[in-house]
Every structure is written in structure tokens, then in C-alpha cells.
Amino acid sequence: MSEASISSLKLCELFIGSVLSSNLQAINVTVDKVAKHIICSDERVRENIRLILGAGALDAFISQLTSLLHTPSDSNAIGELKYRLNGQVGKISFYKNGSAAIDWKMVRKE
To answer: Distance from CA of residue 66 to its chain's centroid?
Structure first.
């Protein structure tokens, strides 16, 4: 695992915050970094990915985020992010949908 960078961690914080603040329990996101095209079921998550993509930091963001993921309890998931928020413990499970740089389904469980 490579060393974390402050800027990559801040991007992860921005992204994770938008996932946690979403009203959706499951968010689908696909990013084609060549065409700079984003499809996402949550507007705030889409806008944060657009900022990350526009800054040219998508690869660093993906590398940092995946290094933060724990081994998933669901064998179909690629990883999960555990959190404690307002006294509640929860997790976000990440599932790979396809071959794009980001092609994830993220499911939040509390």
C-alpha cells in the first residue's frame, strides 16, 4: 500500500460525505474517464465525482479510496467502508458492476 496523501484523503472525505448524506440506500455510479462522462443515481455524489475528475485526480482518488476499504463480509462485494456517525455504526459495501474506472454500486447499511 502506498502512503496516503492529504489531497487524496480530502477527496475521499468529500466523496464519502456525499454518499452518507444521500437519501438513497444504494447508489450506482459509472465514470468513463476518457469521455469524462458520469452516470450516477445521486446528484451530489455525481457532482463530487465531476470535481475529482475535473481536477485530474480520479486515479489518485480511486487508489486512496480502495486502500481505505475493509475486507467485505459479503463475498460479492469488492470491499466495505465501516463508519460511526452520530452514534450509529454502519458500512458502505462496494460492488463492481463493469469495467469502467469507476463502475460501482454502493449500498449503505446501518
So the answer is: 8
The per-residue pLDDT for range 32-70, each reduced to its tens digit, is 988 889 999 999 999 999 999 999 999 999 999 999 999
* Cβ count near 45 (within 10 Å): 24
How far is residue 46 from each of residues 1, 60, 110, measured CA to CA in Å? 27, 17, 23
What is the tens place of the pLDDT at every residue in 68-109? 999 999 999 999 999 998 899 999 999 999 888 899 999 999
Please report which residue ranges of the chain form alpha helices under DSSP H: 6-21, 43-54, 58-68
pTM (2 d.p.): 0.89
Strand partners, 70: 80
DSSP-assigned letter for residue 100 = S
